[in-house]
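Researcher: I'm comparing several assemblies side by side, and this is the next one on my list. It has 1223 residues spread over three chains. Same procedure as the others: predict the full complex and return the structure.
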Amino acid sequence: MDQIISPFILYGMIALGAVGVGLALPKRGQTPQVIGGLLAALAAGGIILGLTIKATEARPNLFFYVFGVIALGAALRVVTHSKPVYAALWFVMVVLASAGMLLILSAEFMAFALIIVYAGAILITYLFVIMLATQAPADDTMEVLAQYDVEAREPIAATVVGFVLLAVLTTFMFRGLPKVEGATSDTSAVLVEKLPRLYESKLRDRKLLESSERVVSVSLAEQVVVVQKGDDLSTQRRLAGLAWPSDVKISNVQTLGFNFLSEHPGTIEIAGVLLLMAMLGAVVLSRKQVQLDEDAKQKQAMELASHKVLSSDDGGAA
Amino acid sequence: MSVLLTNATELIASTTLAQTGFPDPMASGILSHYLFVSAALFTIGLIGFLTRRNLIIMFLCTELMFQAAGIALVAFGRYHLDFTGQTFLIFVLTVAAAEAAMALALVVLLFRRRETLDAEDWTDLKG
Amino acid sequence: MIDMTSILAPWTTLTLASEGAAGAGPSGMLTWAVPGLTLLATVLCGLCAAFKVKSKLPAWITVACLAGSFAAIVKTYLDFGSTHQAIAHAFDWFNIQATVGKSPVNLVASFSFFIDPLTLTWMLFVTGLATLIALYASEYMSHDVGAGYCRFFAAFNLFVFSMSCLVMGDNLILLYLGWEGVGLCSYLLIGYFYKKPSAVAAAKKAFIVNRIGDLFLALGIFLTFVHFGSVEYKVIFAEAAKYVEMLRIGRFEEIPFIVQLIPLLLMVGAFGKSAQLPLYVWLPDAMEGPTPVSALIHAATMVTAGVYLIARTYPLFLCSEYALPTVAWVGSLTALLAATIGMAQFDIKRIMAYSTVSQLGYMFAGLAVLSNVGGVFHVVTHAFFKALLFLCCGAVMHGFGGQLDLRKLSGVAKMKGWLVVSIGMFVGCINLAGVPFTAGFFSKDMILAEAFVTPGMAPIGWILLFTAGLTAYYTFRVFFRVFVGPQHYEMGEESHGDDHGHAHGHDHAHGHDKAHDHAKHDSHGGHGNHPHAPGWAINAVLATLAVLSIAAAGLNFIGPKPMQGHGGTVASMVQHSSTSFTSPFAHHEGGHDAGHGESDGHEAHATVKPFVPGPWAAHATLGEAPHAGSFLGQDPHGEVLGVGLMYWVSGVVGFIGIAIAFVLHFMGRTTAAKSKADGLLPAFGPLASWAQHKWYVDEFYDFLIKRPILVLSHIFHVIDALLVDGLVNLVGATPRFIGKALRPSQSGRLHEYATGMAGGLAMILLIVLVVTTLLKHV
């Protein structure tokens, strides 16, 4: 295994993590959950350490570790918290951490889009639905967590399945990655050639360009910029030997947008239609009148009866 | 241990938040880190999906899995200096949003039917 | 001395009658009337059954067709005489050309008839007796008029058809067809009263025991085909001539083993069909069938098929070392055994059945001691008198309502209307007992004499002589008990109109009723409990048969000149057929011929040596025949007081038997039930009861064969129910089981499905990982 110092550490930590997560699931009391959480943390830390030690040529940013740990911890909390609202909030944390990781990966737009869409829209929707879908407690009864929230089902089977999958995935990853060829050159410069208008403001600032002139094309290889006035070809002149403005940088948004529109135009349309349909669907569905199921009716009737008895008792007592 | 410390200072020294374009190609060592985080996140989401009974929490766990996938996508994109990863993530986001809306609408309907969010309650397809 | 090759030579150059041979003589095509008419009669009787004919029409059809067949045979006999042979071809049946390995193999078996004197001898008495017995049956079975009547006569005709195929066929396969056909008809006819369990059991027993013999016969036919390359007689006899040649020049060792093996197999088939030890057990039980059936099939025709087989393939038997001695011993022991059993039975039909077995033993022994003439002659005479005896017993049974127990009948001869039956019975009995100058006497004597002459067969002769005495005793025991003496009868259970379903001889206590009318018991048909004497048909047949039995004696004397005195007509018939053979021991070489006046006329082939057949050739040196045996030092053919020595001996033995029977069963007998013999029984100790229980042979077979087979069939039943059914049920149960096992996986629970999916994915990836790792390391 090339990426980690030893496979035994990997599998051992995975097993430990499995135990930890299994314990952390909300089934038993609180103490096992804490212990489980600690074990899981230990396991994650161990693996990351193993990775770090082995990675001799380059190590990721410090912030990677920060965001990574936050992400994993918050995710664990999402899964193990009994109250749904808290779980949703911890999910927001996950989204933030993952946005941070995207930032480190030079995907600023995605990071912000993630926060806006996920944390800002989807999660809010989740919270609304959680509110909607919780039975309102009666006045005098304590709010009690539903049984299905408190108890996780079959933690062992799920944990085993999950961590076997993790073990296999990581084995594939850590063994196979060195064979994956990474890119070696910077592509951004090529993109610059396709976006000549980026330079106009910079050149005007340096007084290299008259106000009515516009940049027609850029050639990095020859270091030549061709400018002309409007559409008048006669006024074309070439600016050569320019020092490349070091502050002309293509931002992530621009690159992304360009890639988006030049290579996947159809998909954009489809995505739009998809969103439209989702919206309409949500409206239609929520207007649907749904009758209460027979079993649920019976349960309700029984509960009402028991409430009535209790309240009548209380009323009688009081 | 000293190895660790020197690396830490280096890390702190090279803090740059944003890297416009893709100036430096990513080493595979770094990529494996990101992928590990993605896999771990995915696993946790999977376990959550298989374990929790509350329908909404289950959907939340699927969103968690989406997150993991997103990180992996962008990491690979960065590795290959290709913007396809991020483009794909935009679409994933779109679909996730649409799907979340639909799913939650259905959960509401289900709740109205049975007054419970327990996934175990719905066993009508029992063979 | 007859030259064997000159007899066999015509077979090698036989011309087919259908080819329009150049002046070969009369064709045998008239013999095709026999199977044709009988088959036609079968079909017509079947149609009668279909049209629910309720008259005696089937019987008249049968009698007419059989009479026609008889006429055809007689005409053929007159045309052929006793010297001519022919093959009458009807159509090709099997004509298979194949190649086995490198050699071509032809199976040619056509529907052709091989007409030679032996065939004609057999067919004469078969068709003659069939006609007479059909006439008898027309009255005997008249109670059953309707579907049963038609069924009876249809099977009867089918039987005669099969018998004709058997006897007249020119190849072993046609013989086998007839063989199986007679077995089938025997089964159908024994089981005629199919509502009676004992009859059905007897029919099954007959068929199954016959089958055992048939298996060996089939094996013999197969071997014949393998060795000789053909199943046709003409080819086989041509090849056999070569082996005869080897015997003649004393080169016995060169005869291949297969040729010695074939007769052994054929012989077992003959034993099955002709009820010899150990396959005789079916014949006494076969008496469950109606009496005409017993008379025709189990006395005269079917049971002689075995004898016919041996006679027909005699050249092969002569070449084998062990065949003839085996046949001789089996035949004589059977004769003795059956005679002892017959002495202790009380059912007269059964006694006759055992007597048939015993006499068949005589015939086999006769052929085996090289008296082919004696054997065949005995067949002919026995056919007549045994049929006569059976028919008389049948008349008694018919008239007394099924009563056959000789302890319950007495003095029948003096009853009104029973005279013809009694005379017929008397004639039959004297023939069977071998009273001098009856036909049975001559035929039996030939066999006895030859037995003592042929070297090494003297013990056979003594056994046969002793059995002759026993035969005389038990035959006349029947006669003296049933037909003479104080008059008494008890009716059997089968009153008229109710013939089915009743066992023979059982009758509820009628008491000792000497009165002639039993007024208190009045049964259905109006005949009540009175015995009724036989009608015209029965009487006519019995009279004819009695006359023929007596006349048969003459066959010993009349005939072509060379054969006079040594078997007469029958001898000439036999010696001009494929069976022809003269024992080298019968006449002392040279010298003693002068003593026989008859021998002057023999064709003198002084240059040709006689040949010694297989059993003796095996131990003989070249050119020297073993010495002939003798009877107590005397030549049995030698004359004492103008009559052959053997005549005296067998006559004396016969008279002794009759005398003993007279003393024990006639003198001083006052009741029907008891006689002086009963007083003597304790002297024999347990032997008497063993004999009465048929020496427990049936029980022995039951223990040895039937029980293991039943056990085996139970085992197979269990295996079938458990294994085979179980397997089938397993095939049905497996999908159900799989379904039941897999159903819990469809619990309807989302989580379980999801876990399954995730687990499956993990498994697949794990397997891929492991496989790729292993492949990499490998």
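Model: For your comparison table: Chain B touches chain A through 95 residues (CB under 8 Å).
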